[in-house]
Structure prediction request, 552 residues.
Amino acid sequence: MNRIRTARSAALALLTVSLSAAGTGTAQGTAPKPVTFTAFFADPNANWNGMQDDVGKVITAKTGVTVKAEFAVGSPDEKINLIAASGQYPDLISPKGAGGVLVDAGAMLDLTDLINKHAPNIKRVIGKEFDRMRFSSKDRGIYFIPTNDAINQTYFDTDAWFKLQLGALKEQKYPQVRTLKDFEKVIATYVKAHPKTADGRPTIGLSLLADDWRFLISVTNPAFWATGGSDDGEWYIDPKTYKAQPHFFRPEEREYFRWLNHMNAVGLLDPESFTQKYDQYLAKIASGRVVGLIDAGWQIGDAVNSLKAAGKYDQMYGRFGATTKPSIRPAYNQPTGFVGGWGIGITKACKDPVAAIKFLDYLASPEGQVLKNWGVQGKHYTLQGGRRVIPAAVLKQKNGNPAAFQRTTGIGNYNISIRYGDGVKDSTGNYYTTTYPEQIIDAYTPAEKAALSAYKVKLWNDLLPKASTFQPKAWGAAWSIQVAQDNPLNEFFTKEQDIARKAIPKMILGKPADFDKAYDAFLAELDSKLGKYAEMETELIRDRLKLWGVIK
Prediction:
C-alpha cells in the first residue's frame, strides 16, 4: 500500500451499529424500528464507551443507533485484504487508504444516487466539491463519503512536528527555535544541566519511534517537514511538472538525516529509538524524561494527556517548525483544498442502504454536527445571548483530562460522516466545532500561555508561515488517492519500506564519516528496485488533476 495510506491507519475498529429508521425516513413521532448494521473502521478510538456516553445516548434516543466496538489487532491493510478476499463484508466500512482494494473486489456500492435522493445534508456540506468524491477520472463512482477531510477547514493551531519541553524552554528564557541547531541547543543545554530526572533516571534528549508503520511518522516524515516539503506520503511532487519521485531523493533531506546521525554521535538520541515499542515510547513521554520529540501531536496525545492530568505542565511540549536552514519555510499550513479520498462507504452486503445513507446524513445535519462537537445543550454548553458557551466547570473537565472527558461525554466520538471544519459557522452565527482561537487559548495550560507570551504570539500556529503565503497544492495530497487492487503501485510501499527500515537506522546510528556512503547506497537501491514506480505515481497524480479539471 502507498506509504501514508498505511501510516495513518493506526488500528482497526470493528463496530456493530444498531440503528433504527428514526431520523431515516419514519413518520415523525413513531417509535424507532431498529435496523442492525455492521461497520468496520480503520481508526483507533481508545475513548469509545459503547455509546453509554452522553452524546451516544442522545443519538440513540434520536435515531435508535447503538454501537458495539471491537478493535482489531494487526496490520490494517492485511485485515482489509482479508475482508475483500472473503466476500464477507460489513454493512459500513471506513478503510482509509485501502479503499481501492474493496472497490476492485466489487464490495462497495456507488453512493451517487443514494446521496442525490436521500442525503440533502451531505450534499449541502460537500457543496461544490461533489466531484472530488469520485473515485477516478475513469471510474466516476462515489464509494466513500469523506470523513478524513473536513469541509472549509481553518487550521487555527496547526501541529508542528518538532517539540520541546516547556520547562526546558523556560529555564533557557524561551530561546528562538527556528532551525535544527536551535532545537538541538535547547536539548543539549537541558540534558547537560539535568543529566538525571528527579527520580534518578537518565534524562533523554531526543526520542524517536520506529515501531511498525509509526516509523514513517516519527523517523521519515520529519525529513520533508524540516526541508520545506509538504505531506505527499512517500512522494515528492514537482509543483510545475507534477512528476513524482520518492522524497528521499531531495538533496535537502540528506541533510536532515545527517543531522539525526550527528544527534546520535553526540549522545543526544535515545539509543532505544529503533527498538522500543509504542507503549514504551508513550510511557517515557508520560514520565517526563524526554526533552525533545519529533512527532505528530495525535501520536503522542495519550502521553501528553497523562502529563496534563497529572499537572506536569512543564513536561508538556511547545511546538516548532524547525528546519535545516533558516531560509527554509516550513509548509505545515500549505493549503491542499478538499482532498476527499478517505471516508466511509456502504457495502453490497448492506440490506438497507437507504437507512444507512440517511443515518450518515443525520450525522452531517446541523443538529448532528452540533451534538457531536458541542455535546448536550444544558449539560455541556449553554446559550448566552444566542452564543454557545461552555461552562467553566465543564471546560475544566475537558482541559484537565481530555481522554476521560471524551469517554464520559462522547464529544469527539462520532465523526463518522462528512462534516464542516473548524472556523465554519452555522445559521445562528455559532461555530460548528469548539476549535477556534478563544477556546484553544482557554485550553492552554499556564506553562503554555507563559511560553506563548514570551514568544509574543497567541497560538503555536502563529510561529509558522501562514497559509496565505503558500500556493495551494493543485493535487491535494498524494497520500489520499485511492489505488485499485491490481495497480502495481500497491507493491511500492512494502518494497520501499523494506529498504528504508533497514537503511535509515543503519545510517543514523553509523559513524558520521560513513554517512554519505550509506545514504548513497540507500538511494542507489531505491532507484534500482523502485525506479519504475515513479512514473506510475506521476500518472496517478495526473489522473486526479484530470478528474478535478486542473488539466485535460
